[in-house]
Design a protein that fits this description.
It contains 8 helices and no strands. By secondary structure, the protein is mostly helical. The chain has 2 domains: 78 residues, Rna Polymerase Sigma Factor, Chain: A, CATH 1.10.1740; 112 residues, Orthogonal Bundle (Arc Repressor Mutant, subunit A), CATH 1.10.10.10. The radius of gyration is 20 Å and the shape is globular.
Length: 204
Amino acid sequence: MSEENGASKSEKLSNPQTWVDVHGDFLFGYAILRLKDTSTAEDAVQETFLAALNARDSFRGQSGERTWLVSILKNKIIDHFRRLSREVDFHNNDIDVIDDDFIASGPRAGTWKAGQRPSEWVVDAADLAEQKEFWEYLRKCIDRMPPHIGMVFILRDIENMKNEDICNVLTVQPTNLRVILHRARKRLRRCLEKIWLNTERSER
C-alpha cells in the first residue's frame, strides 16, 4: 500500500489551528440566524470546533471541511433546541402581536424584488441564501417570534427537517406542530411586509 493510500483520514482536514480564521465567521453567521443570542451562537461555534477536533480521525473526506463543520454545528443547534423545548410552552398561541417599535425602525426604502414579496413567498431558504439584506431582516423577524414559534420555523423552513424529526426533537404532537408552523409563516410574512414596506410608504 502506498504512503498516500495509507494516510490517515484525518490528514484530509486542514490544520485545526486555522479553523477559527478560515471558518469562524461563516459558522457564527450560520449560528446567529438560528440561535438569536450572540453568546449562545458563540458557544455553539466553540463547541463545534471542540467536537470537530475530537472527531477529526473519523472525517472521511466525503464532503468538504466546511460542510463537515456545519453538520456538527447543526447538531449542536438541534441539541440546544431540544434542551430549550423543555422550558417553553408549545400551546402558547399568543403570536399575533407585531413589535411596533421594530416596525417603525424600518429597513431601506425600495420596491419588492422579484420573488421576495412575503405574500407570494413559498419559504425556501436555499433560494434566498445569497440575499444578505433579506436574511438580516428575516433574522430580526425570527428574533421577535416567541421561542416555540421560532424553533419550529427554524427547524422546518431553515434547516429543512422533516416534521417527524421536529416532533421528536421538540416533543410536540404532529397536529400542534402543523398549527405552529402555519402561524409562524403567517407571522413572518406579516413582519416582513411591515418592515420592508413601512419605510417606502413613509418616504412617499
